[in-house]
User: What shape does this take?
Amino acid sequence: MTWTVCSQLGRVSRLAKAKVSRPTAPGPFERRRFAAPSAPRPPDGFGVCEEFVSLREEQILLDEVEPSFRKMKFQFDHWDDAIHGYHEIEREKWSAEAASLLHRVFETAFGTRSEVSPLIHILDLDAHGYIKPHVDSIKFCGNTIAGLSLLSTCVIRFVHEGTAEQMDMLLKRRSFYIMRDKVRYMFTHEILKNEESYYEGKHIPRSRRIAIICRNFPEEKT
Ligand code: OGA
Ligand code: MN
Assistant: This one.
């Protein structure tokens, strides 16, 4: 199977049919460091690891991806898009330094358990940009979505598609999150816009945010 270009990552609407795949046991790293944040309770299958990369490591990654964005304009006009105020690329080739950082990302999120896309998705969200509620395409992406949040802290909101239960989690700058199985299929996720960016009653100011997102492939149907 070949991976698709970004525009086909196909963020599907909140009405997307939820499909639950075989649960995957967390690896040892996940058990150790992906402790559930104290409060509020995270949805099943969600883990976040703060300070996953250092300031220096963040800079290495930014130096590598930012030139690709320099000539691109942020897209705001598409009312139908799942994302407002963004641009994005997919990238396969990295410097040795960045590749070794990304190796840590891959190992943490996927171990050797599933087939991972070598194309890494980089999403550059303007300070006024936001991501509307959506579920990533079940056709193109597998049971795990993992992301490094660079430059700005933000709030990610999960809403259960059946019960409308809502959970907000903080994604600090330089943190790494994993969404697996239940939270990936049964909940929509969204990144809140600056005006709505509150966590436990406190405003979390949004500035430009670059996310480096890895996904595995869906399992082949036999
Ligand atoms: C997406 C998405 C999350 C993030 O691109 O589909 O949900 O962390 N991104 O930016
Ligand atoms: Mn998504």
